[in-house]
Fold this sequence. Notes:
The structure holds two protein chains of two kinds. Chain A is α+β, with helices and mostly antiparallel strands. Chain A is built from 16 helices and 38 strands. Chain B has one domain (3-233): 3-Layer(aba) Sandwich (Rossmann fold), CATH 3.40.50. The chains are: A alpha+beta, B alpha/beta.
Amino acid sequence: METMSIDIHTMRNIGISAHIDSGKTTLSERILFYCRKIHAIHEVRGKDGAGAYMDSMDLERERGITIQSAATNVTWKGHPINLIDTPGHVDFTIEVERSLRVLDGAILVLCAVAGVQSQSITVDRQLKRYHVPRLAFINKCDRTGANPFKVKAQLQEKLGLNPVFVALPIGLEDKLEGVVDLVQMRAVYFDGPSGEDLRYAEIPAHLQADAERYREELVEAAAMFSDDLAEAYLEGEYTNEMLVAAIRKGCIAEKLVPVFVGSAYKNKGVQLLLDGVTSYLPDPTEVHNFALNLDDEEKEVELVPDPAAKPVALGFKLEDGQYGQITYVRIYQGELKKGDELLNTRSRKRFKVGRLVRMHSDSMEDISEGYCGDIVALFGVECASGDTFCHPDLNYAMTSMFIPEPVISLAIEPKDKKSSDQMGKALNRFTKEDPTFQTYVDQESNQTIIKGMGELHLEVYIERMRREYKCEVEVGRPQVAYREAITQRADFNYTHKKQTGGSGQYGRVAGYMEPLETENYEFVDMVKGGAIPVEYIPSCDKGFRAALQKGSLIGFPIVNVRCVVNDGQSHPVDSSDIAFQLAAIGAFREAYDKAKPAILEPIMKVSVEGPNEFQGNIFASLNQRRGVITSSTEDGTFCRVEAEVPLAEMFGYSTVIRSLTQGKAEFTMEFEKYGKVPTSISDQLKKEYQEKRKKDAQR
Amino acid sequence: MLKEEFISKSPVRALENSIKGGLGQGNFGVIASRKGIGKTSVLVQIALDKLMQGQKVIHVSFNAHTSYIISWYENIFDEIARRRNLEDLGDLRDQLVRNRVIMNFTQEGVSVDQITRSLKAMIVEGGFDAKTVIVDGFDFSRGTIERFQKVRAFLSEMGLEAWYSCTLSGEEPLCDKNNVPILLRELLPLISVLIVMEPARDYIHFKVVKDHDVLNPRDLNLKLDTKSLLIAEN
């Protein structure tokens, strides 16, 4: 048990953001090693099969990419650092954004050969959105074609950052020997079998002029953020401490990005980067965090990083461990102590803090309290990912309750009995972890359907079922989540009447339906003089809601409709709740066809990036997919094309774009809006639906 | 108001009527003024007029974020829609977005060949059969005769017409005695229509300096409202 208190100003919560394959996992693992937490270095796709430390999931190990975020605590020169691994792909938006929420600073890893790639742009945009200050690490300087100077220029040109070297490589490609530290103005070599022994030396003569030039550039850039340094610099009498303080100020204000260089794989430059994390990235008190006060119309309140304040924490990740559910939390305000009572503001449930631990990727350490600003894990708390835990006096939420609707679905079927048992467990876990992943059983086909934000999103969960739950499933064709909507107003006046021996059923519902712009459904009661008795008004609402579940065009839910009831009739004996529900359903169906319903489809915002020479191919590929190109931006030899494309046309696009551009272009996509399906395709969909219904009826 | 009525009453009709019905394929026009007078707004209104008619428009810009250009279109469209009480706004907006593409060239000193190559790729491979190109923010101090000869050849080949904005800067006088901006004097034979915008007391005033083959400065019966930035007839 730990009793010593930690100074919050020494603490760092950082993430590593990168394009796939720029060496993020290798770097994470080297950081853990140098912080003396692990004792052997495994390669990401190593021969020993042990894999790197951060990737606790087999699937990630196999793909060599990191999908889930894991929080790991390490200590570097007296600074506790929580390392949060952030997933990079946009298909995992919720997860990425949740990780970014809990970071105070980030390392943007770039490949010295490939430079700023499409995903570097995506992750940088995300960092900007969450105002995360960052350091850049130009990795893989040992590779053939490495050019950190070009990459630094790209940071400025493509990401609009203000990058400045704080280190220079000594040699490049296979001649990479070490780095020049531009703050201390000395050469650093990394000796020992794993580069753990630092040797300082004079800057090599052939690099002296370059080092001085870049040092000057560094001081001039930093002086913009410190009058002290600016003055002292002009007088020629400044200190390295002044320089470090000025760089830190610029970095935290997101106006300066210190650039480190090296090769994680070759054990070069990582320790300098770690020094940079503690010197330049903010501690938890230097970052403004806000919560929404649920008692005051979700008004923003700033949280105070004060251990004495009432605690507020965000559960940003769930994991299934040997001992039950583990919830990773970031403490924004106050402290969490064993035995404290907390309120989950989403579920409104109170609970007592039981076991409290600090996590390393595969091991854990019991603690009695979690400090303000820290990241810790709770055991056995019933919650979902993204929940906020507060002192019971507070009613705050760290994130808005808005969750995007899934746009794609798949039918899955367990291959055997054992898989069938496991599937339920797996789905239960995943839906708790990720609110954009949903599941239900289709009443008609009796199939289990999973829904999510993209093809890859669902593929990853299917893989995880196989690996973590030994659950094998047959997978159906991906299905786009269509919607139906009316395009004009239509009246209804429907009488539901049934006489069968005993008590009959009677209800008449009259009024109209009309398109609604922003909301999915609205019910308006304009009945006068009790034409429909008050107690049956909710029955009408219920009936309409039931009718909305399935449109008559292709059987998908109906959205954007307002139903207004203004007249009706009841019977003293035969009217009932169910009679009015059925009358409302009948009324809805009667008016629906008259209201010219249309099919809507999810439209994705697609961004394709690649060399200019393939611009024509990119345009053509989007054009063929019913895409609307909204813009293209050219920057020298590189272009980025933005388009709106129906999701239904995007299946398999990654393969197509790769073959069209010799693998040199990449794309990202996210849900944008629902749009009307063109007539020819709408007719086809309706035909398919009719045929399916006929088949189902014959069965 | 319906779309058709809006198009027939658009002040862009008056503008076109006063320049022999419009620019014409293969030609380009220039709207020149000092910075901050409203050139972009005028270009966007010309583009919106084409878009409402269902024609496709390519908007070329330099060194600007696309979101910035998109918001120009949205703001002006919203202002027009509000004033004219336009119907079917959702469908109209869809039509505008479908028919407009923004092409941004952020590299300094991008060559005319690269721009025309990209435009051609958009029109041919992208299947975007535009009739009008709007070019906002081109630096005419780089506008050589050779460059604009190439531009004209390209416009003719593709059956396009183009509207440019030209920012005038420096000390007075900016124009010669014929009202031709000194910056554009050399290019004048290649320019089909040249309009200069000047601030008057409480609005912006338009002057046609060149109208196809006629080089005879005259005032247009149009003004630009300095608050709404909309073109209106006098």
